[in-house]
Amino acid sequence: LQFKIIEKAWNAVCPLVAKLKRFYEFSLRLENALRSLLEALTSPPYAPMQHLEREQALAKQFAEILHFTLSFDELKMTNPAIQNDFSYYRRTISRNRLNNQQLEAENEVNNEMANRMSLFYAEATPMLKTLSNATTKFVSENKTLPIEDTTDCLSTMACVCRVMLETPEYRCRFTNTDTMLFCMRVMVGVIILYDHVHPVGAFAKTSKIDMKGCIKVLKEQPSNSVEGLLNALRYTTRHLNDDSTSKQIRALLQ
User: Which UniProt keyword terms apply here (predicted)?
Assistant: First the structure.
């Protein structure tokens, strides 16, 4: 009977692990796509606003990536079963290795892949972490490109989203809540990337992002739709707890 239960659990967990692997591999593709987009949206001789006007389709793709990333991470944060299932899978393949048994599922996710996936899913917001690292790497590898070209691109996108959300004449054009949510996710996504890349971050007085305005726009929405986004600002940014962050902004995020 115990063997039957173990077999049933194993058969239930294998398709889930295969799905987790697909999302992990997708994060690597997103990382490459993001770097290509950053190259296109920051290359000389145009200013960030000119780039966003000239290459609207690319800016939209960048926004789509951020929207997916925050949606995925919100689901991941509310699903502890993901890590529990994956831990069970790893324990089982380790135990079988000790008994010199090779399971069919290992062809799909071997030990080395399982280790990489484990590091990925151990992050509170794995997709966002991937994009933050990719943006930081892009800036450090492109020494000839002024860092402002990247941060200005991000702050401009944050500004566009904030203005669309807080201006009644723009907001009334949003025919459904999905568009509002899309805008909010993109805004939060670019704020977080900006905060990871900019030397003093998004919360300092010198930041080109109106953080007070952005947080207020989020707080005007029903709390069930924005709590995940506010948590992303609280827990996945780098500079929120710096001395340079005003008390007002901290209070808004309490």
Answer: Lipoprotein, Membrane
Look at residues 129, 136, 126, 101 and name the one whose alpha carbon lies nearest to residue 6.
101
d(CA 230, CA 223): 9
**Residues near 30 by beta carbon (within 8 Å), at least 6 away in sequence:** 65, 68, 69, 127, 130, 131
